[in-house]
Batch of 2 targets.
Target 1
Amino acid sequence: MAASIDGRIVVDGWPESVTAAMRREYDELHASFGAEGWTCGRITMEPFAKRVRSDAEVASEYHGSAPRADFRAEGDFESFAFAIDPHGRLAWESNEISGDHVVAILSERVSDEYLAFLRERGVSYILSGEHDVDFSRALERIGERFGVQTLMLEGGGRINGSLLAARLIDEVSVLVAPVVDGRLGTPSLFDIGGDGASCQLALQHVERRGDDLIWLRYRVVQAAARD
């Protein structure tokens, strides 16, 4: 992830010189991990999908009891973009993002019609969780179905927070931009709510990058003790 020094991740309104440098450094660091796939939530993925389904389309859900199989589209894929989309709102126009094959991560409530739409588009999908995505099961299937062992989680804050709370993050890598955001109510690196989900981190690496950006890498250790 990339963030301001106060942990905000929405770059609108930041100095253009900062955002340009951050994007350049971010892309370079992203490539350095050699990950087979990356994943984001629905909101982040909307610009890539191009279209969002209507409320009426989304309201048409699956009410059967028979389990339905995951789907892997035909083709040889070397890298993947996993879109976490529990209700099936994204109406994909293509099955790739800059060469990365799109895989929808869905809850089991999505309709047969929507699954047929994805198959017609050549978009693969995984069904995991009755009403919301079961992230633990989804990650297992990502490894089993697509051979992904290193997966980059790239926000937003709610998805990051959900996986952190489920103890499914091994490492936190943050590119810190030399800017203070200060806006209240904007997304942060981890948005969990309630009592949060504190985790202890162990610092693994600190590096000063170009244009005063700092790269921090932490290993996730354990949940912090609670009263």
Target 2
Amino acid sequence: MKLFKSQKGYTLLFAVLTASLVLGVAAFTVGVARKQHILISTARDSIFSFYNADSAISCIVASWNNATNTSPGSNNPTSPSASVSCNGGSLSTDNFFESISSDDWPTVNAFKPNSVVYRSTNNSISFDSNGGCAKFEIWVGYDSDDKQKSIIEARGYNVCDSSGEPSASSRTVERAIRITQ
């Protein structure tokens, strides 16, 4: 009888240790799953943003080429005559460009120093399929060989408000694409 009394509580101790181990493994698994969910969501949002920027670039180049039968770089920036239409909206290039100083040029050295450069800014395109949008800028100027060049930059966003502007949400992701012609 004394032998049984000395082992009293062993089953309870073993049950508590086993429950603690199982709870620890479960907490670790939930933590890993949560982090994976955050990474997957961020990757998805990044892909939406990139594709919105890519769609804006494609739409702008195709619309401009269809309107003028030329590339954006071959238009005369002082009197552009193309109409850029995309996703049901339209941007006329009458008063589309503004003359800018060399301080406002794109960070790439694509344009000739001290030449006149024209740009259009604050243009946006909304995409209904995923609630995203893109903002784009177009620069037209001359390179060092006096050939006209165009730079089109689109910034895609995964979350936008009803006016087509990027949302102030912490979930908003921006991805940019720049092409030079």
